[in-house]
Amino acid sequence: MGYCLVRTDKKDDVARFLVKTVAQLGSGKKLVGTTSYMGRIEHLIQCRCDVQRAEDCSKPSVILEAFETRVARMNVACARNVSKMPNPEEGFSELSSDLVEAAVAHCQLIVVSNAWSGIIKAYPKATVVLVRNHGIYVWGESWISAKTQAECYHYLFDAAIKLYQLGLDWSTPSHGPIGHAQKLLDADSDTSSIVKENIKQEKIKEAEELEEGEGVDETREHKAGGGVAGTGEDKVGVVEKAKDSG
């Protein structure tokens, strides 16, 4: 949670403004601006947090409603206590600490709501927000659109993770080796030596299999009265060449 800095003299002004706003709720006047959420005062006073899982606590809508509920209930309580005093000024003086807390909570609500709306304004065509070490928030014109977007992003993220596990850089069109994978192959380390040794053994094995295949062909040619087969020196040369190339 971020800090909300408000000047001391401004806190009193905000507190008075909020108390007057609560007093106007019964007049039927529509509230606008930063106090528009007060128009749902009955819902905010009685509402219960719709959280089914731990992950739901990080939903923007849940967080925003929690701030709105907190501020609304604090302001209603302050307004009722002020109304019980002989005069408003005495009430403001007696309840100054509670009023200041309500004013600070209102300012924190403004910070939270502006932060979320700022993301939407900065990226109007975006349909998802990726939150580091948490997950994603997806939205759309309808639940079908949001579900489609979620499936697409799920596929892309899954593909990116698999490419990373293979040592490939998913963030570039070429999908070349990522930094640590390239260093693993190039560096003069024990792991790199093992990789090189395995490649060398594979080449030797391929050469030996090729030699065995040529031996079978040579036998068949002799039986059929064919031409002269390769000598033993040629066979040894193939294996030695494979060892040298490794």
Automatic annotation (TrEMBL):
Domain called Class II aldolase/adducin N-terminal: residue spans: 121-159
Gene Ontology MF, one: methylthioribulose 1-phosphate dehydratase activity
Sequence ranges of Basic and acidic residues compositional bias: 232-246
GO CC entries: peroxisome
Protein's GO biological process: fatty acid beta-oxidation; L-methionine salvage from methylthioadenosine
One Pfam family per UniProt: Aldolase_II
Region described as Disordered: spans on this chain: 205-246
PANTHER family reported for this sequence: METHYLTHIORIBULOSE-1-PHOSPHATE DEHYDRATASE (PTHR10640:SF7)
Name this polypeptide is given: Acyl-coenzyme a oxidase
Species per Swiss-Prot/TrEMBL record: Thalictrum thalictroides (Rue-anemone)
